[in-house]
Amino acid sequence: MATAENLATELILPALPEFRRLHPGITLELVTDITTVNLHRRDADLAIRMVKPERGHVTLRRLGTLGYGLYGSVDYAAQRKSSPDAGDYDSDAFITWGEMQSHLPAAQWSERILQGREPALTTTSVSTQVAAARAGLGLAVLPHFVALNAGLVCVTSALGVDQPIYLVIQTDVTQSGRIRAVADFMADLVTRNRTRLSGS
Questions:
Q1: Which pTM value belongs to this model?
Q2: For 187-196, how does the pLDDT look when each residue is reduced to its tens digit (9 = 90+)?
Q3: CA distances to 28, 45, 165 from 53, in Å
Q4: Domains of the chain (ranges plus CATH)?
């Protein structure tokens, strides 16, 4: 199964002991480097992803929404409130994505706000952005459920970069009992955590 690292570490892995109790005979291979995973090439049997597949013989189901906000550390947010520029982002430092991830909605939002200014830091993972924001390096566009777990403060959630969460399965394996067991468990897991994931 392929998915984003933040969904794997914050949502799926904590639930896997329950899955193992229900299905002790199933070994799950979890792939989090989704930039190289292609269901059309059979790199994975199923995926939980935020990008709708454009091709391939797949079955998909929308499970919910991954909500995003602009987050910083408690100290950074407190210092920001006392600034005369608190209503805009002209004096804010930003932690954003590297060039290889510039297609991501979060990266594009930050680029629009920076208007040519250099960010304080670019990284290639959500976990490093969370660590940088916790260290007080600046603001980062992060999934609500990840940022709140890390104790970060939301500056704004009106970003317009929320993403749908899809369950995608290779159509020719949908009748497999093992695949169905994984798919049903993951769909239920996302549905149970829908409010937390959306940040609503």
A1: 0.87
A2: 999 999 999 9
A3: 22, 14, 12
A4: 2-66+162-198 (3.40.190.10), 68-156 (3.40.190.10)
